[in-house]
Every structure is written in structure tokens, then in C-alpha cells.
Give the backbone structure.
Amino acid sequence: MRTNFTKFSWLVLLLTLSWSGLNAQTNCDLVVDCSNITDEEIACRADLPAVDFDLPIVTDSCGDVIRSALTIIPGNSACPEDTLFIDRTYFLQDQDGNMAECMQIFTVISRNGPTIVCPADGTVNCNFTPPMANAADATATFECTGDVTVTGPELSTDGSAYVYTYTATDNCGRTASCEQLFIITGGLVVDCSNITDEELSCRSDLPAVDFALPVVTDSCGDVIRSALTIIPGNSGCPEDTVFITRTYFQQDTAGNMAECMQTFTVVSDTDPTIVCPADGTVECGETPVVSAANAVTTDQCSNHSGATSVAGPVVVGDPNVAGTTYTYTYTYTDACGRSASCEQVFTVVDDTPPVITCPADVTIECDEDPAPFFEGSGEEGLEVLTFDTPTSWADGETGEVVL
């Protein structure tokens, strides 16, 4: 608030005071008290008070006083970052032309955002859609001006209700929201208690999808069922567990949805086994023939199959002597790095009798000695027997040598 007087008026006042001091003659002047006029802060343009000509108090004047006012309102929005300053000036002039002014400033700033309260929640049968929402049913407050909009209905995440969202937006763009729910009665109700998490040894043990596990106790019309099984690439070995998730989805003809979740933990906890081929025998001087393929191996899981190796032989004794043993070790290692071993033993035997082949028969003269026919005819490991030959042979007589 301020008081302004024209230069002339101020001079007149001074002269008046001066004359009053000299000869006590009374002269008129325009005297205005602006103390009732104070600057104000208001929230909205609409809060701007009307011009009040009673605020400037005229304490002295030369005749009647003409009053006027000028209010200057800029285009600022009065939002928090765009404060509006309104200037109002009161002008006063008496019949002698004396003038005075009183100034007032209004600071306009909206400091509070909107609020909103939604209509009460309701219920709706699953075979019907919820009633139309009306933005006017919401209770919104704006410091200045604003509007209410409503969106929906949207089905809630769990399919149990229809949701309307009411939003109040003021002239500064600030918003407030609330939700109105229409609870669906007789909707899709699914009992998932039959579905339990399980621990498996192998991927191949994963049970097939069983749509009978989620039990539908109530629905709006027929129910469409589906399932999604997610199998990560882990091996299922003891240090690389596989977690398989399976989700059962249910949706009825009204669009209500429900889910049931199941988790399978897959980890192999059993080592492989191996059974060696049967022990055997070999003749003196022979070497056993072995093959890894002849061992019988087992894995807990088909995707953990590995390889079999054969080490050896470890020979105990002279290979050419009966009773000597050849020992082979078979080792099977699965895909998890676990192993199992067994041994196959071959024993050397001497079960083959010796073989002899005599020289061809010969004919000799009666007085001829047969001994030369045996010289050099013996084979290695055979002994040629000698005998006394008869001094003479009768015509046609034969003899025989037994070795």
C-alpha cells in the first residue's frame, strides 16, 4: 500500500499548512488514508475481491470526491512456477482538482493440487457388465478449476473385480486419482491346493500336464485351460540344479482369469553303475581280447550318459605258464563327472594236448635196414624211438615202428 499525491497537491498542502501556521486561515486539500488497503495473497484469479471504494478513507477534501480504480491482470497462470501479480490502483480527485492514489498488489498462486473421492464400490454378477460410470459421481475439489475424467472398466489382475479409475486434473495439470471396484460375484474360482511342488531326479521324470489338478469350483460359463512349462538348460547334476516352472491358466467365457503355479526341482543324486564281462581263460601264449562295449552300465538319467574306458592288463605271472592272470579295469564316467569301476580277470590254462604226425609208410627190401628212414624225421618236442631191426625179412613180412 502506498499513497501518492500530485506535485501540485503536495505543494498546496504545504502552502495550506504554511498559511495555517501564519494566519490560522483554513484552506481545503485532499487528504486520503490508505492504511486500510493491504497487499494480499490469493490462490486463484476468481478469488480477486471486487473493487471497494470504501477502502481509501478521505479525511479532508475540497468538495465532493470522484473515485475510480484500475486493475491490471497479466496473463500468468498462477500455477506454482508462474505466479500472477495483479496491480490495483484507487484514484481520488476532489472538485478543486486535487488528486490522490492508493496502490494494492494481489499475489495469485495456487499451492494445492486437487483431491478426489470415488463413488462407493459395488458388486456385479459375472454374467453382466458393471454399470456405466459417471465422472460427476466422484467428489473432487480444486483450489481453482479442473475436470474429472473416468476410465474403465478394466478387469483386475486376479480377475475378481471390474475397476473404474477416476482422475481429477486441475488447471495447473496436477492430478489425483481413485478407484471404484465392482466385485464380481459368481466369477471364476479355482482351487490350486492339489498342485504341489515336486523334486525329481531327472528331466525325463517330469510328469505330463494334468489339467485335472486345478479344480474349478465356480465360473462364468465354460473354462478354457492351458499350461506353460519352462525348462531351463541346466544339466540337473548335483551342482547344476534345474528349476522347472509350470503355470496352469484358466479363463471363463466372461474373461475372468486365474492361474496356478507349480515348480519342479530336478537334481540327480545317484552315481552310475557298471558290470564287467564275465571272467575268462586263455591258453598259454595267447593275449585276451577285451572291449569296453561288453561292459553293462546304468545311469540315473538318460541325459547323463557318458563313456567307458578299459585300462590294463595287469599281468601276474609268466604269460606262458598256466595260472598266470590278466586283470583289466573297466571305468564308466557319466556326464556329471561321477564314475564307477569293475575288473575282469583272465587266467592262463594249458588244456591243449600235443599233436604228432608220423612220416609216410615206406617199403624196404628184406635185407635192408629201416633205421635210416627215421633220421631227421622227428619234429620239435617229439622223440624218435630206435629199435633193433631183424637181420632178415621173409618175403612179404612187414614190420611196424611204434613211437
Observations:
- The first strand starts at residue 3 and ends at 5.
- Helices lie at 7-23.
- Residues 1-26, 377-382 have pLDDT under 50 and may be disordered.
- Residues 116 and 145 are 13 Å apart (CA to CA).
